[in-house]
Structure prediction request, 110 residues.
Amino acid sequence: MHAYTQGGFAIMPHATAPLSLMLCSSMKSHLLIILTKYQNLMAPHEKILARWLTEEWDGEGTELPSWLLNKIWNNYPSNCLNEPSALARKLFLKIMENNRGEISLREKRT
Prediction:
């Protein structure tokens, strides 16, 4: 695939979907793997958030339930407490940073 620029933007004529959507989809799948598979590496408040994000959140809503807010409010910046997607990214990045050697995003094949 060759990219060329026009007006400062990369144009990839052979891409099957916009690159931002492909990256977003890839990030979401990695995020779900980490938040589901590696809860044993999380602090209790992170595990509660991860479980809610993977089991309860529909991926669209922007409001966290009050019981969850009460458990996590002092562990995250207030500007992202009403943005589940931002919380998911922050948790994902923190887990990746703190546990690099223990985490694999590739599924093991048997």
User: Anything to note?
Assistant: The longest strand covers residues 4-6. Residues 21-102 form one domain. Helices lie at 19-37, 44-55, 66-72, 84-98. The chain has a mean pLDDT of 74.
